[in-house]
Specification:
The chain is an all-beta fold and 127 residues long. It has one domain: Immunoglobulin-like. Helix content is 0%, strand content 63%. Strands 4, 5, 6, 8 and 9 form a 5-stranded antiparallel beta sheet that branches.
């Protein structure tokens, strides 16, 4: 599990290879990742949007941006956490993901919380 903390907002990510949803003969590798946000700050914050940078082992880079996560824009009071699971597909058996969540404080101040770099690896592939 990888984690990063920005202004008291801890973002932890744990990736998983989804062998049953992958088709290696067609270069389709499916991954899930569980994200946990924990508010260690003294301020209530809301996750407004996300920006993911996904790179596969061939060097292909994809940017994914959008409002919230999994259809939600969670609000985290001090000490609260929020967890969700999502996924990504690559055309190669390895890659990385990282990015930022745009957060808003209760006073309206915006800042980017770092999503740490984590590795997507198709484990158990035949050699």
């Amino acid at each position: 599990m990888e984690s990063a903390t920005t202004r008291g907002i801890e973002v932890s990510v744990e990736p998983f290879y989804l062998e049953d949803q992958s088709n290696t003969a067609r270069n389709i590798y499916s991954f899930a990742y569980r994200v946990r946000l924990k508010n260690h700050s003294e301020h209530t914050v809301q996750l407004i949007s996300r920006h993911w940078i996904i790179t596969d082992s061939t060097g292909e880079v994809t940017h994914v941006e959008g409002e919230g996560v999994v259809g939600q824009q969670p609000v985290l009071a001090p000490g609260e956490d929020y967890e969700y699971t999502s996924g990504s597909r690559l055309e190669s058996p390895m890659g990385t993901m990282h990015g930022t969540y745009q957060m808003r404080t209760e006073s309206g101040e915006m800042f980017d919380a770092e999503i740490p770099v984590f590795t997507l690896t198709a484990m158990g592939l035949p050699s």
